[in-house]
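Thread: quick sanity check before group meeting

JM: Hey all, I'm pulling together slides for Thursday and realized we never actually wrote out the predicted structure for the chain we discussed last week. Dropping the sequence here so it's in one place. If anyone has concerns about the input, flag it before I start.
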Amino acid sequence: MFHHKDFASLILSSMVLMMSLWLGGCTNFQAARSTPTPADSATPTPTPLKTYYVSLSGSDSNIGSELAPWRHIQYAVDHVKAGDIICVMKGVYNETVTFHTSGSAEGGYITLQSYPGQAPVIDGGGLPVSGETGLVTIENMSYIKLIGFELRNLNGGGVKQAFPAGIWIKGHGDHLEIRGNRVHDIQNSCEECGAHGIAVYGRDAAASLHDIIIDGNEVYNNKLGWSESLVLNGNVEKFVVSNNKVHDNDNIGIDLIGFEETASDPSVDRARDGTVTGNLVYNINSYGNPAYGKERSADGIYVDGGTNIIVERNTVYKTNIGIELASEHAGKNTSCITVRNNFVYNNTQVGIAFGGYDTQRGSTENCVIVNNTLYNNATQGDWGAELYIQFDTRHNIVKNNLVYANKARRFIDSWSPVMTGNQVDNNLYYAAGGGKNGKWIWKKKTYATFASYQKATANDAHGLINLDPRFASLDLPDLHLQKTSPAIDKGQSLPEAGPQDIDGQPRVQGAAIDIGADEAR
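JM (edit): ok, ran it. Output follows.
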């Protein structure tokens, strides 16, 4: 219960409360950057909203008003209905939260969010983890928003059967928004353990998880075992993963997965029809993770069995493999993925990879990799390249990419001869120190000059070599083009390049589009 010094202040507070309720409580709080909902997302019919409050100084016997708040978040979640808002005040709440009630298209969202200007913490310290345990769990629910929390300190204790996550979304459901949260120190570290920062698992073969927005969150400092920082897996469709910062985790940053039998029907058991845009992914490294030992194999962004996904306008650096398109399951594919207008740099092994990582994997088909800027990848020097083409690749397009290699000059490594109909053209290649020599490996054969690579493979007939792209700065680096860059207006005009460059500026501005992720004009 809040206490007031005098009657006048009580009246003032009551007026503020009435105004707050009239305006819909703290619904004007913007905890994350705005992101459009998926194109065919239904808009709930507005209804009068009621706002409830939770405070460490409250009591669950209160009425849940701002003056008489509840004490526990779970109690609040269990006592609201469609269209209601729960505002949680600052402090550390040592509890897990599970939604048991959905919002609705008619009644509106149930919104669980931080009180404006405050930063409540849901802390799992000391709480038991049994099976799949989330600090927040949303299972078979619809029309839910989770906004503006810090979620931290849930530890599986190295137990194989324990599977902690900051946020677990499971089963089926729709119109779920996860915005502006910080998820960190979720851990389960052992050779056969798993943990997630944010997980979306579509387990119902008859009904998908769809119209999902994950925007403006930060996922960091997690020990994940064989699992991922932010993952969509199984029967999940119509999603937007945008403006998130994913960093300093010991396995994959953002993963879109299929064919792991998450949903029992293989025809829907894959993430699909979504967009991954505007994310910042860095310091993702599996080296030292007990599940991987000394392997450096963690992707910044990984599409493993997904289909019909756009990966655009992301910045990925200091991971093991910047962006990868592959299917880990024999006889299955990753297909129809567009990777465009991304900055990918300073990764230890690979800039962009596609195809199965060994001959027992599936294929990568009908994917488009265009207008990306790759710089100084394969820094570890033991294996990898700027472009890494693996097993069983079919009818993929690789064009208009700006490829700036380091002194090792590893431009392309295509180690498998199993490929059909790939198109590689109109890419610009440059290496530290200049020159036309380097390493282009195509179907296991190595070519030491650009001319010999062109002649033997028929690739890059319109490609460019030894033209310094004149980045704004190599110190940071800043991979935007100077106005004098030879990459300007040298790109092939492709609808697959999209309407915007990495900064959201119009892609077509001059006589032609620029090579790389930045449209410099």
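AS: nice. The chain is about 5% helix and 40% strand. Confidence is low (pLDDT under 50) at residues 1-48.
JM: adding both to the slides.
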